Amino acid sequence: MKKKVLLMGKSGSGKTSMRSIIFANYIARDTRRLGATIDVEHSHVRFLGNLVLNLWDCGGQEAFMENYFASQRDNIFRNVEVLIYVFDVESRELEKDMHYYQTCLEAILQNSPEAKVFCLIHKMDLIEEDQREMVSPIVIKIFLTYFHSQIFREREADLIKLSKPMECKCFKTSIWDETLYKAWSAIVYKLIPNVQELEKHLQHFTEIIDADEVLLFERATFLVICHCERKPHRDVHRFEKVSNIIKQFKLSCSKLAAQFQSMEVRNSSFAAYIDIFTPNTYVMVVMSDSSIREFHFLSKHGAEIMIIISFLASAATLINIKNARKHFEKLEGVKTQNPPTAFAPR
Amino acid sequence: MSTLDTLRRDLLTLIHSVKGLQAIVITDRDGVALIKVNSELAPELSMRPAFLASTVVTSEQCSKLGSGKCKAITCFYENYQVVHFNKNPLLITLIASINANTGMIKALETQFEPILTDLKKVVNA
Amino acid sequence: MLKPKTLTNVLSQANTGGVQCTLLLNREGTLLAYSGYGDKDARMTAAIASSIWLSYEKYGSVAFNEDNLKSYIVECEACCVSNGIFKLLLSQEGNVIVIKVSNVLLCMHANKSVPLGTLKAKITTLANYLEGPLTQVATT
């Protein structure tokens, strides 16, 4: 199943950079080496086996833009499933950006009215280096958070108003932190065809094994495609953080020519397991130790109280993951054993 | 009649006293058999030094299993049962069919005391 | 699937009348589940129990023409260190029994007050109960 994804926005707004980080194993620093995109760069990304994302990375220089809206209009805007429009937050030509965005929406509305629209307010990390040194980091952080959310809220309101009658979802992103993963997870979530069914089965699995939380990651990108939470967690950004951290770790593994397979993280209150799941996914299972350990208080002869400690060791959880694997593989309908390849230019 | 022959006769009496008991082997810490008595039914291979040595190692491991020095090990197989008595520095191995009465075999333990004393005399002589 | 609550509950039911702990381990010696009074050496017990199992299994397959090991019992006596004045009890008397369930091992540790026959009956009952479900899980 092929899905066409349009990546548009002004030149230098960071479209190719984010694409490279998410789909082509670049680290943020490496994206400095990327040059400007000329015309349209097509790439096929195998995502979850039978789902192929057909990424059209459209170079954003004005000459190209005019061209897309005129002579290439049909070719570009036909059969679009998702439009991702990237705004550079520090752009000085807001009016012009908005104008292009509107033109783009018109073309979409004409050619692919069913398409989903996402707006990414990108580069939400920028602040001059010399300014940073003058104030203490904490003050900067508080200030920036406030400032950023203020800007973002304004832009978001503008964009939603501007996008009517189409619905648009806005994200603030930066290649330097996990916000990028959050946005892209939300985007691919909309593209997975049987995601409800996947969620249902994941929920079932989580309940059977008494886990606190189970996450399903796409294997190549490490985007969270599905999750099930049984015990509320205070950090709402944890998925993106995990994606970000594990992806980095995976990349450093590959530098040593070793493929990342699984890991177990444990402290006194919880144990987390990350393991290869189906050919297209990784799974993360979080078990809190308090649910694993049970204390039975037995009073013997009325006075003496004995404590029975019971627990399930990690090997048992790994067995559970292994057994669930078969089930989810069936669900995914995996037949080909091809490893998911990212970024194969046509 | 030498002491060793007397010992052998005593052990044979023990074998015949329990139905299904097929062999008794007494070895040292290295698995070398000091004395070996068996009925004609006993599987020949089970009394080879190589296997006896492996059980010595195992019995030493057993001591680490939570509760102090290992005194005895009993193994149940599909058709056989094997009982080891750990009599430092010697190890007694009894091989019986699975149908033999395990309790009776274990009860033989006390009867080995005089035999072991005699055996030590022979070894030291 | 191994349901943590159900499995540990079943195991803990055996810990009565002198049975100290009950554990489930795989043949490689990795602990799967544990229930008992205190858990100091659960992982080590599992490792040793499986190591003994493997060596007796090998013994059985060669010495008795492919005879399958069903279970084994280890009896231990108290171990003391004495310096003449004080006597330090290092470990207590106790028996350990290990039995095969599906393709994992079930291990029970009891103190001396539990007769071997009772211990064997107890572990056999538990093993029979777990046999079906664990075969379905088909651990390797």
How would you describe this protein?
Chain A: GO terms for molecular function: GTP binding; GTPase activity. Chain A: Keywords: Cytoplasm, GTP-binding, Hydrolase, Isopeptide bond, Lysosome, Membrane, Nucleotide-binding, Transmembrane, Transmembrane helix, Ubl conjugation. Chain A: InterPro entries: Gtr1_RagA, P-loop_NTPase, RagA/B. Chain A: It catalyses: GTP + H2O = GDP + phosphate + H(+). The complex is a heterotrimer of chains A (346), B (125) and C (140). Chain A has 11 helices and 14 strands. Chain A has 346 residues and is an alpha/beta fold. In chain A, strand 10 and strand 11 form a beta hairpin. In chain A, helix 8 packs antiparallel against helix 11 (314-332). The model of chain A is unreliable at 335-346 (pLDDT under 50). Chain B has 125 residues and is an alpha+beta fold. Chain B is globular. Chain B starts with a helix and ends with a helix. Chain C is of the alpha+beta class. Chain C has 3 helices and 7 strands. In chain C, the strands form 2 sheets. A 5-stranded antiparallel beta sheet of chain C has the order 2-1-7-6-3, sandwiched between helices. Chain C starts with a helix and ends with a helix. Residues 87-91 of chain C have low confidence and may be disordered. The chains are: A alpha/beta (346), B alpha+beta (125), C alpha+beta (140). Chains in contact: A-C, B-C. The B-C interface holds B 43, 45-46, 48, 51, 54-55, 57-58, 61-80, 82, 103, 106 and C 41, 44-45, 48-49, 51-52, 55-56, 58-60, 62-65, 67-79, 90-96, 109, 116-117. Strand 13 of chain A pairs antiparallel with strand 2 of chain C, so a sheet runs across the interface.
